[in-house]
Amino acid sequence: MSESAVLGGIGSRVSWGSVAFRHGMRQDPPKTKPRTFSAWLSAEDVAHLLLSGEFLDAGVPVPRKFAPQAVASAISSVERWTREGRIFAIHDLYPRYQFDSRGRPYPPVERALAVLGSAELLRVGNWFATPNVHLGGRRPQELLPTAPGEVLRALEHS
């Protein structure tokens, strides 16, 4: 399965088995504020998404640029969530679909990591990106925002 399929169908054109990937010539994630159409994010991109969500939750305008200390703190949160098995990254790229619009992880992602095995991240990414018979042929990543309960039920059959 290609990287773009596992990461949501958009993004890198380099497949997992390609010569370019094996030699480390994959596309690097953007170093600026995350793009809403991007299927993959760096830890810094996730941090910016999370910080934006915190400002929106507080009902204040989102600054054009966050203080370096705030970004560093948010990156620490992303790294902690990864260590705790709440989210996952494949080769330091976080699939966008595991986060809501405010940068918080969807709860079914943590359950998927527990059920499918956090040591097999390609398997987890593949499960989210593949049409699922228990979801009427829909991909679990598509249902995270609207039907997380259905995603959890489909996990029971994995």
How are the secondary structure elements laid out?
Blueprint lengths: L2 H4 L12 H4 L17 E2 L1 H16 L9 H17 L9 E2 L11 H10 L4 H9 L10 H4 L4 H8 L3
Antiparallel strand pairs: 1-2
Helix pairs in contact: 3-4, 5-8
Written account of the structure:
By secondary structure, the chain is mostly helical. The protein is built from eight helices and two strands, in the order H-H-E-H-H-E-H-H-H-H. The protein has a two-stranded antiparallel sheet. Helix 3 packs across helix 4. The relative contact order is 0.14. The model is unreliable at 1-36 (pLDDT under 50).
Number of strands: 2
**Which radius of gyration do the C-alpha atoms yield?**
16 Å
Sum up the overall morphology in one term: globular
Please bin the fraction of helical residues.
40-55%
Which structural category do the helix and sheet elements fall into?
A: mainly alpha
- The unreliable regions are 1-36
The overall pLDDT, averaged over residues, is: 81
Element-level helix/strand string = HHEHHEHHHH
Oligomeric status = single chain
Termini gap = 19 Å
Largest β-sheet summary: 2 strands, antiparallel
Strand order of the largest sheet: 1-2
Count of helices?
8
Q: Which range does the strand content fall in?
A: under 5%
